[in-house]
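# nightly structure sweep
# worker-07 picked up a monomer target from the shared queue
# config: single-sequence mode, recycle default, output format = structure tokens
# input follows
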Amino acid sequence: MEREYLLALDLGASSGRGVLGRIEDGRLRLEEVHRFPNLPVEVRGTLYWDALALFREIGEAIRRAYRETGDRLAGVGIDTWGVDFGLLDERGRLLANPVHYRDRRNEGMAERVFAIVPRERLFARTGLQFLPFNTIFQLMALKTSAAAELERAACLLMMPDLFSYFLCGRQASEFTVATTTQFYDPIKKDWARDLLAELGLPHSILPPIVPPGTTLGLIDQRLPGLPDGRIPVIAPAGHDTGSAVAAVPVSAGRGRGDWAYISSGTWSVMGMEVQEPIFNAAAFRRNFTNEGGVAGTFRFLTNISGLWLEQECRRRWALAGEREIGYVELQAMAREAAPLRSLIDPDHPWFLLPEDMPAAIARFCRATGQPVPESKGAYIRCILESLALKYAVVRGWLEEAAGTRIRTVHIVGGGSRDELLNQWAAEALGAPVIAGPAEATAIGNLMVQAIALGLVSDLPAARAIVRDSCALTYYEPGAGAGWDEARGRFLEIMAKAGPMGREE
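# output follows
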């Protein structure tokens, strides 16, 4: 059985990849077989995902994997981002390209929903945080515009479910990604159909919900270049953060609730793994969410706008015709900049979709009475220090809501390679940080498939394999000067900017 190969198809907001994995001598071996860009397309003011181009790349990744493994390819699983979806007609045809969560159609939709179902009641029912692009607000946008595809829809599939359907023909919604919609009821463990009915939104289009580890079917024999129907399509944790958390290398003997995770990348998703959803007043006040996890768990977390800010600064500087600067060079420049000089709230609305990220940061600094960064290194240092301080704030909020003490923070995902951010996170948190694995999402995807196929017994065993397979880096808080004062100043800056970022 150790010779069995699995393929994780991991699609992120900017790129996708196919990663082959196999367990050999108790260790997970990885090989990337295909990487491809995920390039949204704007047409007449609407920002779309190019779903068919992505599916073509998914097929290419499977073909490359099969060429390497042949009949030893035991399963394929797809994970993507949450909240976005495709609509199918009664014949199972895609009605329109899925719209990107950053599209402006979502503006004002939360207020329309709250006018019918108040925020407090919506949270009490779903336990989900309020983000302007949650699926429920996207559906309200379609209803408000009288979109033809909503009227014709027979089935709604979240993005990983849509691609799995394209592969094997089964219409189902995997649990972890279903919980990102804001119309899943974690108490009843089913869709909150009556909630959608109250909002005048269709609920007959919702497919059955299946747990992570479900075998959905066999790859359609019409997909060229593959054997007829031999390869199972397995639902991993379809939400990429769900897969990433499954790969957190925490020891089974650790006390529950004494560790937190940050899935660090374009977003920094920070939270705890809990056995039951947390619906208390502190969770509502701090805009926390309860999303589905693996092995009957929930992910109690919040989204922090992560390395998106750095990515957008770099993109803007390149658009301005300046020399393209690599991330290693930007890190070196940030090290040389003055410490803790200018701080921002990474989640201020000005940073959600600005045309010019450096200009938005400068505007925030002026509005809060701080010096504007004077160099590229100062901008990057501002971003990374602010993220580290936001982690410290969120850690306190988590402890308040969960009634526990977080002693260690695990950072997984691509951001776990960011040595500056990780060290500054340890300083800001005043707690040890364990970084790695960087490939957490693909690894978690593979581990859920392995559990489903009986190659690994359970989640603790899978995490033990991750610990034994991946190089982890440990960061301890040192005597970094100024971090205690910076935490207090950061809270003052957040308060001055306002909870929803009023323009000053």
